[in-house]
Amino acid sequence: MEECRPILNTGLRGFTVATTRISHVDKMADKLIYRGYLVRELAKNSSFEEVAFLLLYEKLPGRTEIKTFREQLSAAREIPPDLISAIKTRPKNSLPMDILQASTAMLANDDPDVQHQSYSKENSLKMGIRLIAKFPTIVAAWDRIRSGREPVNPSSELGHAANFLYMMTGEKPDKKIARFLDICLILHAEHSFNASTFSARQVASTRAHIYAAAAAAVGSLSGELHGGANSRVMEMLKKIGSADAVQSYIDKELAAGRVIFGLGHAVYKGDDPRAAILETMSKALGKKTGKPKWYQISKLLEKNGKETFKHHKGRDIFVNVDFWSASVYHYMGIPMDLFTPAFAVARIAGWVAHILEEQFAGAAPEPVLYRPDSEYVGDYCGREECPYTPLPER
After folding, report:
1. Residues ≥6 apart with Cβ < 8 Å to 157
2. How far apart are the C-alpha atoms of 335 and 155, rounded to whole Å?
3. 12 within some domain
4. Among the four 69, 76, 178, 369, which has the fewest Cβ within 10 Å?
5. What backbone torsions phi and psi does residue 379 show, to the nearest 5 degrees?
6. pLDDT tens readout for residues 62-89
7. Are 87 and 197 found together in one domain?
8. pTM assigned to the model
9. Residue 38 and residue 138 share a domain
10. What is the bridge-based pairing of β-strands 31-34 and 23-26?
11. The domain spanning residue 32 has which CATH number?
12. Which tens digit of pLDDT belongs to each residue from 264-293?
């Protein structure tokens, strides 16, 4: 009887590696659920701070709870002066995600709950809240430092999203734009066991502190197959340049065997449920800024791209979250190479929730160290073990 061998090199697709109470990606119904709540309802009715609280505490906050939580975030926004001094020494062309990853790890040096750590959920939760608070400050500070400007101190008067925009520009943002960014942060806050979240949980399973796990997640998100798609969408829109050039671009790219960035998803069987919300914001921002071009190109690109792909490939293709977030971030004045760091500003809330769950609230009585098996396929001398030849005889 032929031996049944496992299928390898799958990227763990189709394999369930853990249980979670944090979020559910309903692949067939194209729904995204945070702690039992549809993300579209949260985006419509809540703030990012409320959603972050939900992810951390497993419930929506009451009035007193959200007031306290906002005060905790506001009080933790500043980053240590020695970290500012350190990133000022970095080359101005350093990749923003590299700066964010290094800064995340360095934050541990100044956190008393790391230096005198008792391994507890309470301490890790406090550190996690600090991470959520400080991520926008790091990203905004680096954007100003690399352009020769001094960082702007965080404002205690502004909400999480509005403060992020304020620290980048030095001016209080338009309320509508700040609310749109707030919605973006909600939409990007969590998405189950994607590559960066799995990286965070894998490191957390070793009982590493939360900064180490979060830094690993940032590193994973920096890869172009995971976190770079939104900026590549914007690059594509700029390359197309006008609605008149959309179809010729599609034909050229598909004929060459290339992809239309932002079309196609590894999980959903239909359009990403977050995309429609982002599309509405893109349209509104195009009108508000008097530059509807980017919305118009995107709309036609989605429509014609889907139709042309169906004609050539005989199957449907669907829009993902990066497709519409690109023009939204661009309209907000966020530089293209900060699209992914801005994504991390949102996703840190989900990462923290997963790190806490991995270390303190998993299904097993104790955290389980991730240690997958592998199959050795080396064949260097025609046998399993090679005879050793001393260096002078080689």
Report:
1. none
2. 22
3. no
4. 369
5. -150, 85
6. 999 999 999 999 999 999 999 999 999 9
7. yes
8. 0.93
9. yes
10. antiparallel
11. 1.10.580.10
12. 877 788 899 999 999 999 999 999 999 999
Half-sphere exposure of 5 (CA within 13 A, CB side): 7
| Same structural domain, 190 and 51 | yes
Nearest to 264 by CA among 188, 319, 223, 327: 319
User: How many C-beta atoms surround the C-beta of residue 108 within 10 A?
Assistant: 20
User: DSSP string of 94-105?
Assistant: --HHHHHHHHHH
Question: Are 365 and 211 a contacting pair, CB within 8 Å?
Answer: no
DSSP string, 8-57: --STTTT------SSEEEETTTTEEEETTEEHHHHHHH--HHHHHHHHHH
Which pLDDT band, with edges at 50, 70 and 90, does 367 fall under? Answer: low
For 365, the 3-state DSSP assignment is coil
Query: Are 297 and 342 within one domain?
Result: no
Do 81 and 155 share a domain, yes or no?
yes
**C-alpha R_g of the chain:** 23
Query: What is the CATH classification number for the domain harbouring 277?
Result: 1.10.230.10
Report the number of distinct structural domains present in the chain: 2
Catalytic residues: 265, 322
Claim to verify: residue 98 and residue 169 sit in the same structural domain = yes
Q: Is there a contact between 336 and 235 (Cβ–Cβ < 8 Å)?
A: yes
Which residues have CB under 8 Å from 57's CB, separation 6+? 65
Domain that holds residue 284: 229-331
